[in-house]
Amino acid sequence: MQSVITDLSRYMEFNEAESLAFKSILKLKTVKKNEHILLEGDVCNYGIFIEKGCIRYYYMIEGIESTGNFFFENDWYSDFESFLYGKQSLQNIEALEDCVLYLAYKEDFDKLVSKYPVFNNFLRIMMERTIKGLTGKSMAMTLLPPEDRYLRFIKHCPKVVERVSLKHIASYLGVKPESLSRIRTRLTLNSKS
Which residues are CB-contacts of 67 (< 8 A; sequence separation ≥ 6)? Predict the structure, then answer.
């Protein structure tokens, strides 16, 4: 649990009482590989901190998975639209490895913020990081051809390539697994010549 507080302290300052209060709202959850943390149609009424493991969120579009992003140790994630407004989520959140997570439920978080307003900054910071990530991905998907998207992806997210299946990476990049395989083969051949 200390890793949650250590991560939080990278973004904001808080005292010992505030730290203890934040720890008190966290609920430990262990999840097995391929288990879902959230299913489309459910309300995402919690934020997730990843102590150990890897998760992804994805959408089902006409029976095909479209991966939005991957998250690893010391990352936070929530479907903010569902979290903030209590709307049914369009996302699925899946563990890609066995995970140790801490969940902060909205009701508990709202009570925490009312007593310790310093944590309002936390939500703002998390939303800013989410918007930055979405903007970067949107720009890459719109402006770059698949090979350049892959090169950009492995440059900025090397641990994903080491820990996530090519099927999920292809889904993230908006290509079929066979296309990603051809891109990787072409890049390997080009690097040898």
Answer: 56, 57, 58, 168, 169, 171, 172
| Neighbour-count burial for 18-53, b at 16+ CB within 10 Å, e otherwise | bbebbeebbeeeebeeeeebbeeebebbbbbbbbeb
Euclidean distance between CA atoms 169 and 141, whole angstroms: 13
**Three-class SS state of 68:** strand
What is the pTM for the complete model shown? 0.89
For helices 146-156 and 177-192, give the axis angle rounded to 10 degrees: 80
Angle at CA of residue 89, ends 84 and 95, nearest 5°: 105
Residues contacting 118, CB < 8 A, separation 6+: 12, 13, 14, 18
3 state SS of 148 = helix
**Structure confidence by residue, pLDDT tens digits, 147-173:** 999 998 889 888 888 999 999 999 999
Cβ atoms within 10 Å, residue 5:
15
SS3 assignment, position 32:
coil
